[in-house]
Amino acid sequence: MKETFYDVMRRQGITRRSFLKFCSLTAASLGLSPAFVPQIAEAMETKPRIPVLWLHGLECTCCSESFIRSGHPLAKDVILSMLSLDYDDTIMAAAGHDAEAIVTEIVENYKGNYILAVEGNPPLAEDGMYCIIGGKPFVEQLRYAAEHCKAIISWGSCASWGCVQAAKPNPTRATPVHKVPHLADKPIIKVPGCPPIAEVMTAVVSYLLTFDKLPTLDSQGRPQMFYSQRIHDKCYRRPHFDAGQFVEQWDDDAARQGYCLYKMGCKGPTTYNACSTMRWNEGTSFPIQSGHGCIGCSEDGFWDKGSFYDRVTEINQFGIEANAEQIGATAAAIVTAGVAAHAGITALKRAQLTGESS
Amino acid sequence: MNSNAINTPPAVYVYEIPVRVWHVLNALIILVLIVTGYLIANPLASVTGEASAHFVMGYIRFIHFTSGFVLVVGLVFRIVWAFIGNTYARQFVLPPLLSKRFWSGVWHEILWYSFIDKRPRKYIGHNPLAILFMHLILFWGTLFMIVTGFAMYGEGAGQHSWQFTFFSSWVIPLFGQSQNVHSWHHLMMWFIICFVITHIYVAIREDKLSRQSLLATIATGWRTFKDDEPCDD
């Protein structure tokens, strides 16, 4: 007999009243109407608890750090207990062979019915030797666990895009989950960010577990409810952008007035995330609110665009490292010089010609 | 060489009114787009006072977007005109890229501009090198700007806008992320600036040195010739 979510919660000493409160909170955080509350409650009462395997590849654990700080207090407690986090080498008590045995156990016992959450990514160079888990390359553990999972969650920019370890020149060939060769063809939910927002992470997990289906994903595989708009679209400093009021230096009066950080290289206009609406640390603040531009951490290859403080960023094609402005202005200068030289030679040749003919 | 008046008509009507009007409008729009586009990437100095009292960046972006739409209408019109207008109207949109004669013409123009070949050829329409550059940089360059421009416009217009559906949804993943689209859009602006510099220079130079009229032709539409020998196109 497999336990339901509700069984687990009751066992953990959560009252029915608290349970129902949690259901309405979950509905609210997922942007659903109150009509969905009974549906969520019923799902939790009847559905068997789905185990989650949380694997760690090349990563910095900032995703885990973010996840355990999920802001809604009740949701945090309940999700951590309802989430049958059977394997997470960072926060689990077991270690060594006992810990690794759990992976095999889950894969064997819950075939096709567990969620694989991946934090970090596998390096492919040297047959994956740059990341060894329990004596084996991480990429093998990932392929093994992915074989029978229900769906894969790519936590953070590492699993979603590659992040810092995949930045040029990427010596270990760190590869985001969806690009790993010979990986079982499973639905992948990308939850990018370095780290992703805590409430976004818990909401994605609770959506998966309560509705037993994937949230609506955008064309790049990110949950639409959190990644369909840019930071810039919902930024509270947006009126300053439209007015043409910008911070020009970190310590100027405009910075104190809270003007737009566009000229300081804020990547809000090109970054899809929910920071400007959900904010961080229980909705306290987010980078722009604390006076620093967005660095675009939830975007693909954000490490390879040069300085975080430039508006016009670098292009890395053709082995050059320069921004569009430098390349373009240089090209225009060369063309102008070329035209001037060509005009000079033309005039000279004409003079010679008229000299010869006269 | 037996040259006579039959080889060369005294004047040929090359650029019809729609082409000339498009040429002027397109040049103006490109100028506006370059200035406003540059100011979007590198905004003017900040204005002071309440944010509600100003809309500087808003107006600059509005002008850029509006001009962009005009550019699209212009290019669509120009493509349609390539099929309606005379043979010379086709060169910009559908150059004879498969013709050997065309490529030998391109090679000759390169030799002529390298001061190796001393004698320019004579064309009623554009010379082959001009056709090649206009087609590659201006036609495909404008299309590139339209596609990347709509992709970025769609980001602001939202996921249910047609710009997002037809452009943003595939252009942004293609480039990796939005910032890359911005960078390439900006870089293409510089390529178009390079084209404009070269375009103006060679137009003046050809007007002086070639064997046909040039600057007057784009104003009046009539091509006249400086000698009686046969044309090369």
Summarize the helices and strands and which ones pair or pack:
The complex is a heterodimer of chains A (358) and B (233).
Chain A: H1 5-11, H2 16-29, H3 37-46, E1 51-56, H4 62-67, H5 73-82, E2 84-88, H6 96-109, E3 115-119, E4 132-133, E5 136-137, H7 138-147, E6 151-155, H8 156-160, E7 188-191, H9 198-211, H10 224-227, H11 238-243, H12 253-257, H13 275-278, E8 314-315, E9 322-323, H14 324-357
Parallel strand pairs in A: 1-2, 1-3, 3-6, 6-7
Antiparallel strand pairs in A: 4-5, 8-9
Helix pairs in contact in A: 2-3
Chain B: E1 11-13, H1 17-41, H2 56-84, H3 87-90, H4 100-113, H5 128-157, H6 162-175, H7 178-209, H8 215-220, E2 222-224
Antiparallel strand pairs in B: 1-2
Report on this model:
The complex is a heterodimer of chains A (358) and B (233). Chain A is an alpha/beta fold and 358 residues long. Chain A contains 14 helices and 9 strands. Chain A has helices spanning 5-11, 16-29, 37-46, 62-67, 73-82, 96-109, 138-147, 156-160, 198-211, 224-227, 238-243, 253-257, 275-278, 324-357, and strands at 51-56, 84-88, 115-119, 132-133, 136-137, 151-155, 188-191, 314-315, 322-323. In chain A, a hairpin with a 2-residue loop joins β4 (132-133) and β5. In chain A, α2 crosses α3. Residues 1-5 of chain B have low confidence and may be disordered. Chain B has a single domain (11-47, 55-224), classed as Up-down Bundle (Fumarate Reductase Cytochrome B subunit), CATH 1.20.950.20. The two termini of chain B are 18 Å apart. The longest helix of chain B is centred in the C-terminal third of the chain and has 32 residues, at 178-209. Chain B is mainly α. Chain B contains 8 helices and 2 strands; from the N terminus they run βααααααααβ.
